[in-house]
Amino acid sequence: MAENGGRGPTVARIWRGRTRRDRADAYEAYNYEVGIKPLIEKAIGVQTMREDRETETEFVTISYWESVEAMAAFTGRDPTAIHHLPRDAEFLLELPETVQILRLVTSHGKTGGT
After folding, report:
1. What are φ and ψ of residue 47, in 5° steps?
2. What domains sit in the chain, N to C, each tagged with a CATH number?
3. pTM here?
4. I want to staple 71 with a disulfide (CB 3.0 to 4.6 A). Which of 79, 89, 98, 107 is the partner?
5. Conformational region of residue 109, where left means phi above 0, alpha means psi within -120 to 50, and beta covers everything else
6. Are the CB atoms for 63 and 45 separated by under 8 Å?
7. What are phi and psi of 94, to 5 degrees?
8. What is the pLDDT of residues 69-82, one digit of tens each?
């Protein structure tokens, strides 16, 4: 049972990765197919963000979960452990070593999309 009585997410898992700017579109498509689609099926919500800079692009993925236990059930292990996609080493400038897990305290306004 979620800490908030099942009314929504109580934690967010934040992943960050950087790629060369000229590989960003290809990585975005790959990441969606291999990394984001499975999250969409299991997490309460998923947001992906992208910042294009002169020579590199940073991607941020935030997935929202009812509990840390729900994240662990999805990953099959410690949800704070990093999980690299099969082609991440090909695309990313360096492989991220950590993810950030934050407890949601409040949420205001409308977020969401299609």
Report:
1. -125, 140
2. 11-103 (3.30.70.100)
3. 0.86
4. 79
5. left
6. yes
7. -150, 150
8. 888 888 777 888 88
